[in-house]
Design goal:
This protein is mostly helical. The protein is 60% helix and 10% strand. Strands 1-2 form a two-stranded antiparallel ribbon. The radius of gyration is 18 Å and the shape is globular.
């Protein structure tokens, strides 16, 4: 899964307005950020095999450190603890749990679409339901998760700047367009190119989320009499 991962980031933001949206954008893709870095460092392996699935040409044959079930759980705990340490007393609420859950949501959603290449233990006992072999349902699922999470977020916030609603829908449409290119465009030139493209994309998307977020404000904060809305960035 690619852009569908951002659905949980919007959903997490709807649950706790104090967690920056860009943090959740990076959290839901954290396992892939690790994957990209590990591929570049030669720690994990991938081959470009056009046709290995109907929509994704990546043969992800060795990624036990980023996408193993046990390691994904471990990275989720680490991410929550890092967020708690970064925020200090301000991070003592639900934020660390949401960040950790956002990280682990990546593995859960990948399980739906990957071929059996997600290892449970080490690089063994690989699982995956293989929805990538069905382009239309896979694209619909990505879109449903993305805009479903966005709808939850928009319901719990109020526009405070121009573009505070339309901007998110334009961003969502752009993400779906990127997903179509990933599904139906030319395969990456190399494993290194795939890893670099992923890392740059995640950084850019998190940056756009950080830019859009101040244009909306939590309705829960606005409803509290005599209080200033919580900072969202």
């Amino acid at each position: 899964m690619f852009v569908g991962h951002y659905g949980p980031s919007y959903g997490g933001k709807a649950q706790d307005a104090a967690v920056p949206l860009w943090v959740l954008f990076l959290s839901v893709q954290f396992l892939d950020v690790l994957w990209g870095a590990f591929v570049l460092l030669g720690i994990e392996k991938v081959r470009i095999v056009p046709g290995i699935t109907a929509t994704n040409p990546l043969d992800l044959y060795y990624m036990p450190y980023s996408h193993g079930l046990l390691t994904a759980l471990g990275w989720s705990v680490v991410a929550g603890l890092v967020y708690r340490a970064w925020k200090g007393r301000d991070g003592a609420g639900t934020g660390p749990l949401l960040v950790g859950a956002a990280v682990f949501s990546h593995w859960i959603l990948d399980f739906l679409v990957h071929r059996p290449d997600l290892p449970l233990v080490g690089n063994e006992l690989k699982v995956g339901l293989g929805l990538w072999n069905f382009p239309v349902p896979a694209l619909l699922l990505e879109t449903l998760f993305l805009f479903g999470g966005m709808a939850l977020y928009l319901r719990t916030t109020e526009r405070v700047e121009a573009g505070g609603t339309a901007g998110f829908f334009v961003f969502g449409a752009a993400l779906v367009a990127v997903q179509c290119v990933v599904f139906f465009g030319a395969p990456p030139e190399s494993a290194r190119a795939a890893a670099l493209t992923a890392l740059v994309s995640y950084a850019v998307f998190a940056g756009v989320a950080a830019w859009l977020e101040p244009r909306r404000r939590s309705t829960a904060a606005l409803a509290a009499p005599g209080t200033e809305p919580a900072a969202t960035g």
